[in-house]
Inverse folding.
């Protein structure tokens, strides 16, 4: 849970050509009626897309459904957009006997379905009707490849060195059944039914080519629930995302995306996603006083300002001491340890979801963070920061890393392409 954030930003977008509905498919946009359709056009023309780690803008709830992200582009959707209210993460393993040909057909199906659903249309076939009353609701669908995918498809020579398995960390308590996978799909939307509809469509499209390895569900605050856009809070009540790299930073693309001339060539404009299921030991955390919680994090709980003073965006003064000569921001505070300047400049774009999977027989909540971070190279992003945290982060006593995955997420598909085509047909 590295301490990095981003300010809310919006960029103009130009809608791509939408797929035509088949004779039996009914456009979900049409079902919104004239007023709803007008809202959709305005949403598309205005590019209602923010950047990660701050929620999408404080939009009136009645217009949440009109937000639309573009499927085609330089990068895949679901990386730089604002946090979404609902998310599903699902990993698949290719079925026995399925190889490169079956994988290519699957990614072709998935891409076509994602394009339709993100445009607010019904799935191309066997649509469940779950989301037929809603607009696109800022739906994004993102696809990635795990380490094992390349061996199963005979593409070992195309496997990136950056996809080598993550090292073991002393704080790991990983469930292998809920880790890794040949294929990874991230789904996000600002409406729960729209997100579930996409999850079900992706699962159905997998057919006999792949089977679900694990699946996780997450959530964030709904856009419009706060009076102004602000950094999201996690289930510990902390502002979670301060100091994320910003798209306006001169080195943003260099840190987050594989360069166009990078290696391997099929990963141009792509990124690497580290996915961790981090359980929060909330009963223990909530027994701490407010002061103790703030000492663990190194920031004020109310507004995210550093304990050294100022507001959320104020640079943390790591040398400031109190009257007793003690550092105001403790040496083992989470925010101090995760600073890029304390980790060789390591930076990653965090775009998480919270999760709650019920309450155990002992009354302990199974809740925490579906941590997702994006970087051009995890060995220069996630790994050095996590190693540092492993050596003495005060927050470690209140969290448990229970699942992990690393996925190569190729660049966006151009018009007429499917995601991963340059790998599978190269």
């Amino acid at each position: 849970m590295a301490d990095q954030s981003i300010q809310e930003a919006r960029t103009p977008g130009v809608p791509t050509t939408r797929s035509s509905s088949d004779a039996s498919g009914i456009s979900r946009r049409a079902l919104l009626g004239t007023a709803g359709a007008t809202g959709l056009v305005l949403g598309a023309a205005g590019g209602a897309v923010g950047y990660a780690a701050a929620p999408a803008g404080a939009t009136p709830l009645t217009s949440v459904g009109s937000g639309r992200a573009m499927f085609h582009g330089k990068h895949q959707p679901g990386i730089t957009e604002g946090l979404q209210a609902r998310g599903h993460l699902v990993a698949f393993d290719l079925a026995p006997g399925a190889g490169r040909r079956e994988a290519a057909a699957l990614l072709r199906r998935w891409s076509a379905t994602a394009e339709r659903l993100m445009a607010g249309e019904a799935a191309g076939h066997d649509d469940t009707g779950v989301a037929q009353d809603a607009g696109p609701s800022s739906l994004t669908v993102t696809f990635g490849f795990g380490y094992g995918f390349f061996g199963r498809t005979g593409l070992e020579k195309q496997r990136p060195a950056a996809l080598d398995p993550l090292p073991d960390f002393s704080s790991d308590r990983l469930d292998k059944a809920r880790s890794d996978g040949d294929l990874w799909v991230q789904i996000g939307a600002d409406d729960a039914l729209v997100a579930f509809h996409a999850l079900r469509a992706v699962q159905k499209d997998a057919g006999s080519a792949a089977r679900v390895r694990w699946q996780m569900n997450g959530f964030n605050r709904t856009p419009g629930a706060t009076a102004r856009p602000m950094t999201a809070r996690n289930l510990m009540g902390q502002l979670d995302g301060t100091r994320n790299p910003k798209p306006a930073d001169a080195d943003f693309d260099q840190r987050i995306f594989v360069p166009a001339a990078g290696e391997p060539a099929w990963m141009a404009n792509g990124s690497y996603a580290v996915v961790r299921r981090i359980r929060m030991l909330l009963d223990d955390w909530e027994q701490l006083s407010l002061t103790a919680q703030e000492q663990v994090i190194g920031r004020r709980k109310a507004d995210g300002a550093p304990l050294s003073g100022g507001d959320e965006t104020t640079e943390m003064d790591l040398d400031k001491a109190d009257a007793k000569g003690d550092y105001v921001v403790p040496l083992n505070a989470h925010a101090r340890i995760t600073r890029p300047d304390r980790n060789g400049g390591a930076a990653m774009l965090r775009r998480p979801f919270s999760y709650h999977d019920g309450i155990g027989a002992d009354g302990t909540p199974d809740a925490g963070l579906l941590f997702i971070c994006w970087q051009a190279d995890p060995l220069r992003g996630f790994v050095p920061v996590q190693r540092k945290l492993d050596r003495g982060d005060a927050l470690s006593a209140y969290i448990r890393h229970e699942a992990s995955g690393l996925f190569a997420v190729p660049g966006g598909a151009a018009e007429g392409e499917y995601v991963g085509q340059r790998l599978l047909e190269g």
